[in-house]
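Risk register update: the risk of archive-format incompatibility is retired. Evidence:
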Amino acid sequence: MVDVKISALSAIASVAGEDLVAIIDDPSSTPVSRKATIDQIKTYIGAVTASSTDTFTNKSIDLTDNTLTGTSLELKTAISDETGSGSLVFATSPTLVTPVLGTPSSGTLTSCTGLPITGLASGSSANLAGVISDETGSGSLVFATSPTLVTPALGTPASGTLTNCTFPTLNQDTTGSSASCTGNSATVTTNANLTGDVTSTGNATTIASGVIINADVNASAAIAYSKLNLSSSIVTGDIVDGTITKADMSTAAKTESLIIAAGDETTALTVADGKTEFQMPYAFTLTDVRATLTTAGSTSGVTTIDIEDDGTSIFSTLLTIDSTEKTSTSAATAAVISGATIADGSIMKINVDVLSGGATEAGLKIAFIGYQT
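Archived output:
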């Protein structure tokens, strides 16, 4: 074979593994010209690639004919400005775990859960009303500070200041205590029913003397005595017959007594029913019953008296006078009245049930204390 420069050789159409190439063996020490096959060179390059890490700078890799392998974590390690963690994300149907979305420029949340109001597509009051089923009223959404309400039904507010409010003419029932009505031309129509104390603030603080006269007061007004500030005693001319009844009087004011004798002043009493009998001249309510003697019992024992109303005792504990005493008010055992209501015309009977040991009692009298009914 004739020696020829490598540069003068013709190019081969395709390279096979058995083709030879010239190499210089050990060029840095004792260089020797040798040959090597293409397969040998490929084997060497594969070994070097597998056992070392190479850095590609300004190189392009065609992924059509080449395959890169690795994990999301390996890719994250090679990148310095990533956000978040986990798996690599592609555009179509990714699964994001607790992402912070910021402010998306657009999006459809139809299949999302956890929304504050489901179905709210845009931001008008009507849209909000359309997705809420338990609202009240209509119109614009209302917030706390300075809202404008149109014909609201306020119910009964727990508090509030109506300083800047205007009020209609008082043409309705007004109730309450010490309510005030102010204004230059406040009007109360003939339909107003005022109850409770009525006062005035402003120019006229009181109703002038003589403005209200008897003709202004309805006959059925039923003004309580406690509302009358009387400057002097009531005289006969102030009272119309029948205007004050016993029901209007206190018990103390209408209390009276009927005193009935059950024997003479000197004859000693004997045990017997019906010592005195009489008929009540009017209906009567008992508040107390007392017995007195002109001559007291001289020895031990008590004088015991019973009183019947149409045959029934008016006592659950009988009336007694202790020995040597002349009145039942000092008795050791007080009488208890069980039949205080006595009808008009009732037959009253006084019975002497027990006398003292000496039986010296005389001059028995009974006081019926109470009031007519």
